[in-house]
Every structure is written in structure tokens, then in C-alpha cells.
Amino acid sequence: MPVGRITEQEKLKIAVIGGGRRCLSMLDMLESRIFQRLQAEIVGVADLNPQAAGIRRARERGIFTTTDCARLFNLEKLDLVIELTDDQKLLSNLAASKPESVGVIGHTASRLFHDLIALHQRLEEKEDETSMASSFSQALIDATSEGVMVLDGDYRILRVNEAALAAAGLSREEALGKYCFQVSHQSLTPCDNPDTPCPMKSTLTTGKSAHAIHEHAQQDGGTHYCDVSTYPLFNRRGQVVQVLEIFRDITEDLAQRVERRAQAIKADLALLVQEDKLVALGKLVASVAHEINNPIASILNFVKLMHKGLAQGRSKAQDLRDYQGYLALCGQEAERCSRIVSNLLSFARQHSPSPRSVDLLELLEATVLLTAHRMRLSGVELAQELPDQALEVWGDPTQLQQVFTNLVFNALEAMPQGGRLSIRGGLEQENKLVWLEFSDTGEGIPPENLPRIFEPFFSTKTGGQGVGLGLSMVYGIIREHQGHIEVDSQVGKGTAFRITLPRCNADRDWPQGAKA
Question: Are 498 and 436 in contact (CB under 8 A)?
């Protein structure tokens, strides 16, 4: 059989002439995977010295041995004879006497054959080392809880760990060979969003590691936020041939960080709101001090009159009736002072929202009482057009009074030279909504500022007059009460704020938990 026609089922049968060191080496390779891969086996060894090392090793392995080279040609289905002695005469005789189906190679060619086998053996050893290193690295990446992928320059997945497969909901067979953006983003093209650049592309371009926060699509249609890092893998020429991508799901961490940040912002905002409230409180205190001064002065005058009468011995029935009248007036003035102080304390007190049924007319009355002196000092005339029936809503009375106080002070500050503040109210939409309107005849708001007046910290006031949270706070409170606030203003003519809130009465369903 010609050497070139060996089939996968039939092994190449080789006989060796020369039982020295090189023969021994070839015999040692006999059981290696090289011979298995080449589909070859040594079936005979010949040497003039029957005690040569190669002859002895062949006998140990049950291989035919002889001192007569010609006998090798009698071996069944012999394909090749390798002459290792470098005897040119012997080689010529072998070539002349061999069967046509048997090939013969000499010492030089046999050296190449031997070296080729040795090279293959070293290659197999390297393949074993590479396989072990690959298995070891795969075990390492499978051991990590973070998703890991090895990508080629075309974004295809070459290797992937269990964490990445679990995140994508794919088997290893389904993931290998796919594009990374197909698996992570369920997209047909690489990431091209300028706000979230592709770290893989950056690493391929720069040869350096890259990092980004990406949104990864989930099998259930949800989205997770992932911290993605990529690292270049170089060949021996320093070229980036593969990229290691590591990603970590930070959705929960991000939510916790956002929550902590939101809580911190809320705490800071609460302090700022309180500061703005203190500014308003300072204005109220000045107004209340003057407002309380009048009834106290009246009480003192009545007390002096009664002291004087008693000192003069006036105790007739008419005098006693006068004293009773004085005491009644003193009681009324004292109650007025008490209401003013109570309203002031209620406004100033920090508290947790406590919603209940509230009559807005009562809150307006308290607000007007607290700000009356400030109105008089500012030369502002108050006009009220309110219904006789209660305007009940479901809400926190302190917060709603804070809304009214802010709107009144805004109106007063818009009329430094005096003017008219009108407060109107009523019901609308078949008595389902309560509305209130605070309008002034002040300077008005420039059109360019109107879209921003409810923004936090936006203010046209000078230093020391607040932190620009008044109207923002008003807007927030009204929205929390499921209401709306609108503004209409014309420069030089004035501004009107209109509030609408859901009405709360016996004819409608109370909010959940209202009667608990």
C-alpha cells in the first residue's frame, strides 16, 4: 500500500533499521498521542547487534526483531522502512529489493521524521499546558460573581462565565459566537450612544482599559444598570486581539445610593424650607407685635380706670356695671391676643403633616389676623369676596396656612407703595372643587420670569429676604394636596395666583384613612 493512501482505519506500519539511541527514542514515542494522531505504529526493528538498546526495548513491547534487514519486508502490510544507520550501500540495496508497496527513507530523511515527531510531541505538551491554563482561567472567571466575557475584535463572544450567562438567561452554547451587544443590549448594532460610550470600542481603539455605566436589557423586558470595564489582551506583537469585559449589576446599589442621596437632599431642603419659613416668621412677629400691642393697651387702660374708681371708693351699681363692661372688653382683647399668639405658634411649630378636614375660610381668617398690621403699614387695602358656606378640603392645616401666608407676603412685597390685595374664593365643577384667588395691584412679573417662579431657589429678591423657596414650597404643598396653582401677571398691573383643591364634604367619599 502506498504511504500516501493510509486510511483512518488502517495504521501506517513502520519498520526501523538500526537499534540505537534514535530507535529507542522512536519506540518511547510509540504510545504518545503523536503516533495516534499520525495513525502510525512500529511493527519491526532490525540490527546486527541483538542486544542493542532499541532491540531490547522492542522485544519488551512484543515488536518483531531481527538481525536480517531483508526479513522486515516479510512483515504483513508493511508500509515504510526507516534506515537509521546512515549506510548508503544498505540503503541502495533496500531500495532495490523492497516490494513496490513499501517506501524506504534514509538517515537524513529519518532525522527529519524524528525531529518532526519530537516537534509534535513538544507541541502536544504546549497544547496540554494551554488547555490546563484555559481550564484554570475558566474556573477562575466562573468563580467570580461578576459577569465576564472574552471578545474578539469583531465583538463576538469567545468565552463567557456562568454569571454572565445567568444575567443574559442564555446557555453557553447560545452565547458563544454571538455579538456582545446582542446579549447585553438585545441590539443589532454596537453601542453608539454618546452619553454611554462603548468601552469595548474604546479599548480596541486606544489599547487601554475603559469603563462605563450601561443599561443592560433583561429577558423579562426589564433594565438593569451595569458597571462595565474592558481590558485589552495583546498578542506577542503588542496588538490587541481580544478584549476582556467585566460587568457588575449595580441596579440595587444605585437605587440605594439614589435613596440615600434623596434623603440627604430632603434633609437639606427641609432646613432651607425652615430657613425660608423663619424669614416669613420674622415678618409675622413684627406684624404680630404691633397687632398685640393695641389690645394690650386697651386692657391696661381699662385696668387703670377700674383701679382709679376703686381707689375713689366708687362702688355704686352703675360703677359695678361699668366695671363688668370693662372686664368683658378686657376678656375679648385677651382672647384676641391669645388667638394671634396661637396662630403664630402654630405657624412656627415644626411638625409632621397631619391631614384632616380643614375649612379654608378659617385658615384665611387666621392668616389675615397675623398679617393685618403688616398690611396697614404697607398701605395695602384688603378686599375679600368669599362665600358664607365652608370651603372644606382634606389637608394639613399648618401647610395650607403656610401657603396663604407666603402668597399674602408675596403680594405685599409686590406693592411697596401700597395697593389692593383681593382674596376671592368659591366652588366650581359642580361643587367638586374649591378655589381661592390672591390678586394684587403690584409691579407684576416680567414674562421671562413667569416660567421659573415655581423653581426652587429662583428669586428676584435681594439678600436677607429668603432663599427663593417660598413659591416653590407653595407649589409643592398644593401638588401634595392633589391641587393645582396657576399664575397670571401683567407688568405694571399686578399678579393673581389661583389655587384649586378637591372639596371634602359629607356628600363625597372621604380620602382613604380619613375616618380611621
Answer: yes
pLDDT band at 36 (very low <50, low <70, confident <90, very high): low
Q: Looking up cell 456562568, which residue turns up?
A: 162
- Per-residue pLDDT tens for 403-415? 898 899 889 989 9
Looking at 9-146, which runs of residues are DSSP E strands? 12-17, 40-46, 64-66, 80-83, 103-105
105-150: per-residue pLDDT in tens?
A: 887 666 666 676 677 777 777 877 777 777 777 777 777 778 889 9
DSSP string covering 186-252, please? --SS----TTS--HHHHHHHHSS-EEEEEEEE-TTS-EEEEEEEEEEEE-TTS-EEEEEEEEEE-HH
Q: Is 2 exposed, middle or buried (0-12, 13-18, 19+ CB in 10 A)?
A: exposed
CB 247 within 8 A of CB 226: yes
- What are the backbone dihedrals phi and psi of residue 136, each rounded to the nearest 5 degrees, phi first? -65, -45
Task: Quickly tell me which residue has 370693662 as its cell.
Answer: 326
Q: For the chain, which residues make up each domain, given as ranges?
A: 3-129, 144-249, 262-502
Pick from 263, 250, 153: nearest CA to 211: 250
CATH of domain 144-249: 3.30.450.20
Q: What is the pLDDT of residue 166?
A: 84
Global pTM?
A: 0.44
State the DSSP H helix or E strand holding residue 68, giving kind and residue range, or none if neither. Answer: none
Q: What class does CATH assign to 262-502?
A: alpha beta
Q: Cα separation of 410 and 283, whole Å?
A: 12
CATH number for the domain formed by residue range(s) 3-129: 3.40.50.720
Query: Residues 114-142, buried b or exposed e (16+ Cβ, 10 A)?
Result: beebeebbeeeeeeeeeeeeeeeebeebe
Rounded CA separation 44/77 (Å): 12
